[in-house]
């Protein structure tokens, strides 16, 4: 961040942070010499360095929030901090897969917790929605579908915090 025009006034100043790091380095050397009470001094210096680094991180983050995604990534990288990777697992969505026999479908929903219940509903083609049996598992099987017809399915979670929204409809061609 030193002499970087993207960070004109970091708080705390970089000179202050460097002085704190130097103090921590000296305190660690004293601890290695086994001086009495040196660990307490070192721990206090370490807490100060961590606090100032967290303040610098917040400063960089505040500048990155005001920029578009590409510019924000560039700002964070030029500061010397690491850019947090996005999650590798996409959010699970409701799904429908063919069941074990003709005219059946296996429905799965995103897991909503150990004590959740799931409300399911179906619609043939674009007809009205019909409720299916509620389950305590994030999956269910529906039988007796007419092969060659399209069906839509939706699910929502029922938890202690309330009733969730219906999922996006999942379209399934019965085989």
Poorly predicted sequence stretches spanning 5 or more consecutive residues: none
**Biggest sheet character:** 5 strands, antiparallel
Q: What portion of residues is helical?
A: 25-40%
Class based on secondary structure composition and strand pairing? alpha+beta
Number of β-strand runs: 8
How many domains make up the coordinates?
Answer: 2
CATH homology superfamily name of the largest domain: Immunoglobulins
The ordered string of helix (H) and strand (E) elements is HHHEEEEEEEE
In the CATH hierarchy, the third-tier topology of the largest domain is known as: Immunoglobulin-like
Computed over alpha carbons, the radius of gyration is 29 Å
Features of the shown structure:
175 residues, alpha+beta, Immunoglobulin-like, 5-stranded antiparallel beta sheet, 3-stranded antiparallel beta sheet, 3 helices, 33% helix
Describe the secondary structure blueprint for this structure.
Blueprint lengths: L13 H19 L5 H28 L3 H11 L15 E4 L6 E4 L8 E8 L5 E2 L7 E4 L7 E10 L2 E2 L6 E4 L2
Antiparallel strand pairs: 1-2, 2-5, 3-4, 3-6, 6-7, 6-8
Helix pairs in contact: 1-2, 2-3
Task: Provide a concise account of the structure shown.
With 175 residues, the protein is an alpha+beta fold. Helices cover 33% and strands 22% of the residues. The protein has 3 helices and 8 strands; from the N terminus they run αααββββββββ.
